[in-house]
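pasting input
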Amino acid sequence: DAGITQSPRHKVTETGTPVTLRCHQTENHRYMYWYRQDPGHGLRLIHYSYGVKDTDKGEVSDGYSVSRSKTEDFLLTLESATSSQTSVYFCAISGEGPIWDEQFFGPGTRLTVL
Amino acid sequence: KNEVEQSPQNLTAQEGEFITINCSYSVGISALHWLQQHPGGGIVSLFMLSSGKKKHGRLIATINIQEKHSSLHITASHPRDSAVYICAVGSNFGNEKLTFGTGTRLTIIP
């Protein structure tokens, strides 16, 4: 299995509080992604990174920011959590870009915003 | 934006049956991925293909680029195949990101 972990695995927080989710990989892969998964929707890309300090927005980036200061870590921050951000968040990695290379997924983080 | 539709949404079958899951998309693509999401939530990549057919064990994936359609087949299905199967498509032209379908939930009954 690809070495990819997420922390925390579960979190309950209140509306308006900042939340940071961490994705850590030991594979030295260039690309890292944050997705959210909600009932009735496919996985939706929030942000992705194509290298240290190189990030770009996905289709549902509003209310989220990311940082990648090291190859192995990709942080997702909810600046002021809202109930609509209650979701399961998956981190993924790939060696090449998302089209031509398989992605390895982390175990997911279940976030509940009350 | 590419629209990805999977069918059926839910499928229940007896152990040993031949399973087919379909994926259709609206815009030409460069590659298509099939993924499996286990009941516990973990997601693994099964196939990436851009033409023809690929086989891995009891799993076979085919794609018809002209018809914008892919199928995932499972032969001799087993209860451990019970999972959600997800199709995702991507193109090198324009937005180089994957668009995911909502998945097909497969349940294999012993």
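fyi The mean pLDDT of chain A is 95.
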